[in-house]
Design goal:
By secondary structure, this protein is an alpha/beta fold. The chain is built from 14 helices and 13 strands.
């Protein structure tokens, strides 16, 4: 059973982060989380004591081989798949470009890709570029006014020409969650691949790719207290039908390694292993989820009337990521006010969610903030106080 994240547990968790000991309040988790010291130590130790490549007969080579094997095993447990279905890469966007190009070898002119209007452009641009080169069609699935996905519109746009339905499981801008199981089921009924950007979702909710029916899913540990790295799941039956872009002498087994290009970042894989061990030690996402939702509910219940929250008004159907504006105060001024008072939030225009940006209707920029499990109720209260003062 997952342990509850009470005050004492949160205090002990925060002690494991050097970056949290300096008094600054990090409410910028939607752009990337802080990292516990043990993850940095694992990266540094690998650079010091296991700087080698796989395949040799000496000790450091064996160590990096063990690191890769352990990373595949941990990633499989985190995603709910098998180790040979795991693919590592530089980041989500790089993996998306690589795997979309690989899948696209089998597409014909006029074939269609559906993407969500909620998506980060890292999940859209790869398909637009592939469509440009292969004469494909990319179509956007509409949203309701509250930023939830219009499943009826999705169903109406599916056809015998649909090859992929690509979507973000949770919005990196407004936090809205998509019913992934429903989308995957609709995609499969049309004979299409279900392709999930889980970068933002993976930081806040447990993942089970088999349960939702994903064919491809990509996420990034830097959102859940790990290093900058990309992790993909590819369903075995799908991967076996693809011909990878690959240097010919490079390893082709296990299956997922066929789609990895170049030498793996062994030190970052060691950091990822330490990240999963850290999450396990605090009860995993099953323990994290209810605590983070409490923080989100505390924020929504206490924000001043002058603050506009875009998207869903409550915590139902979202992760604790919020896009806001303060009436009469430009977003960059709000972010600067917060930074001057030791609180980290961002101001930006699109948040890389280009189609969503056009629908929200704010001028110029908005402020994004979000909570993760190392944040505290006191930090939420401090944020609200400063929003009142701004």
């Amino acid at each position: 059973m997952a342990q509850a994240l009470g005050l004492g547990v949160i205090a002990a968790i925060r002690e494991r982060f050097s970056s949290l000991q300096r008094g600054f309040i990090f409410l910028d988790a939607p752009g990337g989380s802080q990292v516990p010291d043990e993850v940095g130590d694992a990266v540094a130790l690998t650079l010091r004591e296991a700087s080698a490549n796989m395949g040799a007969l000496y000790e450091t080579s064996r160590r990096v081989g063990e690191i890769v094997h352990e990373a595949e095993t941990r990633a499989a447990r985190f995603l709910g798949c098998r180790p040979h279905e795991v693919i590592f890469g530089a980041n989500m966007t790089s993996l998306d470009f690589t795997l979309s190009r690989t899948a696209g070898r089998n597409f014909a002119p006029g074939d269609e890709i559906l993407v969500s209007s909620l998506d980060h452009d890292g999940g859209v641009a790869p398909w637009l570029e592939l469509a440009h080169d292969r004469d494909l069609v990319v179509r956007h699935v509409e949203l309701h006014d509250d930023t939830t996905l219009d499943y009826d519109d999705l169903e109406s746009k599916l056809s015998e020409r649909t090859r992929v339905v690509a979507f973000a499981w949770a919005s990196n801008a407004v936090g809205t969650i998509v019913d992934a199981q429903r989308v995957c089921s609709l995609a499969h009924e049309a004979g299409a691949l279900a392709w999930i950007d889980a970068v933002h979702y993976a930081a806040h909710e447990p993942i089970d790719v088999a349960q939702v029916g994903a064919d491809v899913l990509i996420c990034s540990p830097y959102k859940f207290c790990g290093p900058h790295l990309g992790i993909a799941f590819g369903r075995e039956e799908v991967l076996e039908g693809w011909r990878p872009y690959k240097a010919r002498p490079a390893p082709t087994t296990p299956l997922g390694r066929r789609f990895e290009t170049g030498t793996p970042p062994y030190e970052l894989l060691a950091g990822f292993n330490a990240t999963i061990d850290y999450l396990d030690s605090i009860g995993g996402l099953e323990a994290i989820r209810p605590y983070e939702r409490e923080l989100g509910e505390r924020f929504l219940a206490s924000i001043p009337d002058r603050v506009t929250v875009y998207g869903l008004p409550g915590m139902e159907g979202r992760v604790p990521t919020f896009l806001i504006n303060v009436d009469g105060v430009p977003a960059p001024a709000v972010a600067q006010h917060m930074a001057d008072r030791g609180i980290g939030v961002w101001a930006h225009d699109s948040w890389y969610s280009l189609d969503l940006y056009r629908r929200l209707g704010y001028d110029d920029q908005a402020v994004r903030l979000g909570f993760i499990h190392y944040n505290t109720a006191d930090e939420v209260d401090r944020l609200v106080s400063e929003l009142e003062a701004v």
